[in-house]
Amino acid sequence: MSLLRKKCFFRRTLLLVSILSIVMLPQTAAARTVSVGLAIGQSSVSVSSSSALSATDGSGKKHALGTTAVFRSAGTNIVVVGNRTLRLPVNLSSRHPLSFNKRRYRGAFRLLSSDSGITLLNVLDLEEYLRGVLKMEVNPAWSMEALKAQAVISRTYAIRSVLQNRGKGGYDLHDTVMSQVYRGMNAEDPKTDQAIRATKGMVLKYGGEIAFTPFHSHSGGATADVATVWGGNMPYLKGVNEDFRTESPHSTWEASLSAAQIEDALRSAGVNVGRLQELRVEQSDPFGRATTLRAIGTSGSKTLKSHSFRMAAGSNVIRSTLFSISSAVSSSSAPIPLTSLSQPKPVPPSLPAGTGVPTSLTPMSAAEE
Q1: 186 and 165: one domain?
Q2: Which of 136, 184, 296, 323 has its CA 20 to 30 A from that of 84?
Q3: Which domain holds residue 153?
Q4: Are 122 and 35 in contact (CB under 8 A)?
């Protein structure tokens, strides 16, 4: 990280702390566990450990398994492992760390039933969870104060997610950018571990409540107001300009989607306008970031949040809501260029209608990337 980027990080951090208060969680809250979704809706899941696995199924029956077990979905609330039939949920433990998808994890595993198969969770202590997060979100070579600041931010984000999501879908957090990137023991590092220990139990609060602390790797030169992304009014998450940086590999980017791909993304976002004829930016915020899109098709037209479209299309494809529409096509199989802006600037609220689908986007908001 360059000295310039470090200074920028500290400026944002100091501003954040001046608005929010850092508090210590009560001992019972600090020791809370979190559940992280590692695999969602799978037909089978393979779990292993260097020592024997122990399973307790939903009926309370205990099962001694080997060092590797493959669980296959066999109907509602039922999984098969070898010649055994187990009722979900299934809790898994071992004397040594558990492994899944070539990664090792602290804590325990839990198998749940989902609409499309089996869901695998990692259930562990909050502070242990953070050890698998920090290195994925910041560079351990950064200064200790920067690492400590991120530890507080990530802890706050996790606890707020627990409070909001517990009981919804069976788990608290994703292991991807949908929450915070989490890679278990594979991501642990002595420097980030030190930062976590030094800030144990520290969280950010605003108005007596756990703050919402999303963060990004690159803002594209401006952040977004939380109201335009998730809704709500949070004085500490307002859109602001900041220096545009080029160190990030995603400072600028390009992507291409066909009309058919855009139709799929729209349907995933709950919007169906038939055969797509046009997609345009309908409204933008003062920083040039698209807030709403208008989809026009053979079955009519609908408005949707640009953030909803971005997440449906894939945040690794459309890396921001700071975009402009650069072209239109007439064939549903032809690619639609999505070209990023080199710097934030106002985006026209609409483009001339055509027979095809215009679209285009750029790096992200404080609330997004």
Answers
A1: yes
A2: 184
A3: 3-31+128-229
A4: yes
> Considering the entire predicted model, what is its pTM?
0.76
The token pair at 59 is 């009926």
Label residues 301-340 b or e (16+ Cβ within 10 Å = b). Answer: ebebbbbbbbbbbebeebbbbbbbbbbbbeeeeeebebbb
Convert 194-218 to b/e letters by CB count within 10 Å (16 or more is b).
ebbeebebbbbebeeebbbbbbbeb
Please indicate, yes or no, if residue 198 is contained in any of the structural domains: yes
Residues 134 and 225 in one domain: yes
Q: How far apart are CA 132 and CA 137, in angstroms?
A: 10
Shared domain check, 302 and 165? no
Q: What is the spatial distance between Cα 129 and Cα 118, in angstroms, rounded to a whole number? A: 22
Integer Cα distance of 192 and 137 in angstroms: 10
**Do 20 and 157 fall into the same domain?**
yes
The pLDDT-based confidence of 172 (bands split at 50, 70, 90) is very high
DSSP 8-state secondary structure symbol assigned to residue 45: E
Domain total of the chain: 3
Q: How many CB atoms lie within 10 A of CB 219?
A: 30
What pLDDT does residue 186 have?
97
pLDDT in tens, 89-122: 999 999 999 999 999 999 999 999 988 899 999 9
